[in-house]
Design brief:
Length: 167
């Protein structure tokens, strides 16, 4: 009797938990944001085994434009990208860390995957909560946290491709 109970206990321990380990993908966040807003973000980018902490400021326009400025912890601008209402991407500023091609190919696409109107199968975004997202691609992983959302109209200059947002 004791031996059977012991074997049953071992079997249960070996089987482990049957709860799925991956979180449920929640509804997209785009609909939960005001049409016009300024979103403050914090992110951890893991690439080639190294981690980088980043701050992001996303201005969203009711007309569909998006302007993302990514900064490092000490305030230097690493990337500045404008996604126009028609979906075209304009790299306003790049850096040694984020080259223009990388910004267009990955950063702008991930921005549209998380905050865009339509989600496609090519969007590797996992929604952990309405303020926490994970983007995992072959070359990198981005863990994004939304810190604050300030609703309200944003300056039109932010969405003008001929204007620089930060000097």
């Amino acid at each position: 009797m004791r031996r059977n109970a012991f074997l049953l206990l071992l079997l249960l321990l070996a089987a482990g938990c049957t709860t799925p380990s991956s979180p449920v993908n929640l509804p997209r966040v785009a609909s939960s944001f005001p049409a016009d807003a300024l979103v403050t973000q914090r992110a951890v980018l893991t690439a080639r085994g190294r981690q980088f902490t980043l701050n992001g400021y996303l201005a969203v326009s009711g007309s569909g434009g998006k302007r993302l400025i990514v900064m490092e912890n000490f305030g230097a601008v690493l990337a500045d990208v404008l996604v126009k209402p028609d979906g075209t991407v304009r790299v306003m500023r790049s850096s040694r860390i984020f080259r223009p091609a990388w910004i267009e190919r990955y950063m702008a696409v991930d921005l549209q995957c998380i905050f865009g109107d339509a989600q496609t199968a090519a969007c590797p975004v996992q929604t952990l909560s309405s303020t926490h997202f994970v983007v995992e691609r072959r070359w990198y992983k981005l863990e994004l946290h939304i810190v604050e959302t300030k609703p309200g109209s944003q300056p039109a200059e932010l969405f003008d491709e001929w204007q620089k947002a930060i000097p």
